[in-house]
């Protein structure tokens, strides 16, 4: 079983390095626009969310931002850029926002895929497109983005150690064999999304989502993605101390 | 030392209690039993202070006051544990409530948008509808 997975895992890398990505300019950039809903948890990202949504709009029709009680102009910025914004009346956490997004997309009859995307602009749309290609081509229900499948991303050693520990914990608890944890870029087919309910409101949802998606028994893949560590995303990023919170949230229910 | 064994066991039991999946009614019952025992022990200790010291000596604690302190620490730990759990459950309820509000509002907004879209569409259709004599009735209904 692990052998099969690692072979599968290697495929997407070839897929990129063979230059297929360069030729994707000729492929329709809006090939996934109709049946894909982008779900973005949004909390106080006024300065970047507009650009992120505007870029996504070039490829997708449906962008849903779940505003988690922002106190800045995030809602207006996202709406101006063309996103559908759902508003939590109070701040609940990123996991809660994702679950709200899933439940909203469930009511959309045309939706086939959900892409979870971070609001701070650290994901690449090209990666999301290729992940959707993979989900369609191989008929898999879940594609996890991983920053550790190739060497494009350099998170720095502290973050690497923390993340690798998180990966280890996640793999122990979920029984899956992932190379990355807490990567916000995922493709989830709607049938998989409707089979899970995230109960971890805060950051521990990233482990919970792997656990629950794994339990559905639906086919999944990992795909190499690059995370753009801008100064902005770094300043917003998870502090190392927060991993303590995540661990406690997972253990005490 | 008996007291050390007792305290360690008590702390472990509280820890397990914390990690156990929540069961509403049994938790409430345990809390109430604990409260009842607390009241009993308090009354007995007030009426017969030497009783505490006797128990303390029995399990290897010097004074009754020390035993009281240990009991207080344990009670505090239990209190923290149950409060934490109750908080988690309360938060979960708030999340469900907030999500329902969010989705209901979204649904209402979507319905409005759809109505507005239909409205614009029918308005755009109107000139040809009016032009076609056979569909006059339909145009009247829309108007």
Automatic annotation (TrEMBL), chain B:
InterPro entries cross-referenced by the UniProt entry: DUF2304
UniProt-annotated stretches for the region Disordered: 118-143
Protein name per its UniProtKB record: DUF2304 domain-containing protein
Keyword terms: Membrane, Transmembrane, Transmembrane helix
Keyword presence, Transmembrane helix: yes
Pfam family, one: DUF2304
Membrane recorded as keyword: yes
Transmembrane residue ranges: 34-55, 67-84
Positions with biased composition (Basic and acidic residues): 122-143
Species whose genome carries this gene: Agromyces humatus
Lineage, broadest ranks: Bacteria, Bacillati, Actinomycetota, Actinomycetes, Micrococcales
């Amino acid at each position: 079983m692990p052998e099969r997975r690692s072979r599968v895992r290697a495929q997407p890398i070839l897929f990129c390095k063979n230059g297929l990505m360069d030729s994707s300019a000729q492929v329709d950039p809006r090939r996934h626009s109709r049946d894909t809903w982008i779900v973005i948890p949004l909390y106080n990202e006024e300065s970047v969310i507009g650009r992120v949504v505007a870029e996504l709009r070039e490829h997708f029709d449906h962008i849903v931002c779940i505003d988690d009680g922002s106190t800045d102009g995030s809602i207006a910025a996202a709406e101006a850029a063309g996103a559908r914004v759902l508003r939590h009346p109070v701040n609940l956490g990123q996991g809660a926002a994702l679950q709200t997004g899933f439940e909203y997309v469930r009511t959309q009859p045309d939706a086939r895929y959900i892409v979870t995307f971070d609001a701070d602009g650290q994901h690449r749309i090209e990666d999301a497109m290729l992940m959707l290609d993979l989900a369609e081509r191989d008929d898999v229900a879940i594609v996890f983005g991983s920053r550790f499948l190739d060497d494009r991303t350099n998170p720095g050693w502290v973050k690497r150690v923390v993340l690798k520990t998180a990966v280890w914990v996640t793999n122990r608890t979920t029984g899956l064999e992932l190379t990355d944890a807490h990567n916000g870029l995922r493709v989830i087919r709607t049938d998989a999304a409707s089979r899970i309910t995230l109960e971890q409101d805060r950051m521990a949802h990233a482990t919970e989502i792997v656990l629950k998606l794994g339990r559905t028994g639906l086919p999944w893949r990992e795909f190499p993605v690059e995370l753009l560590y801008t100064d902005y995303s770094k300043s917003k990023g998870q502090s190392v101390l927060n991993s303590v919170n995540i661990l406690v949230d997972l253990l005490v229910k | 030392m008996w007291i050390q064994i007792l305290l360690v066991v008590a702390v472990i039991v509280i820890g397990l209690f914390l990690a156990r999946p929540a069961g509403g009614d049994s938790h409430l019952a345990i809390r109430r039993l604990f409260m009842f025992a607390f009241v009993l022990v308090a009354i007995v200790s007030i009426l017969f202070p030497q009783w505490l010291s006797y128990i303390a000596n029995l399990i290897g604690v010097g004074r009754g006051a020390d035993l009281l302190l240990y009991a207080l620490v344990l009670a505090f730990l239990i209190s923290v544990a149950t409060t934490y759990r109750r908080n988690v459950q309360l938060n979960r309820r708030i999340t469900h409530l907030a999500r329902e509000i969010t989705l209901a509002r979204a649904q209402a907004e979507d319905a409005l948008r759809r109505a507005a879209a239909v409205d614009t569409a029918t308005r755009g259709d109107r000139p040809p509808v009016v032009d076609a004599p056979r569909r006059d009735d339909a145009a009247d209904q829309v108007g």
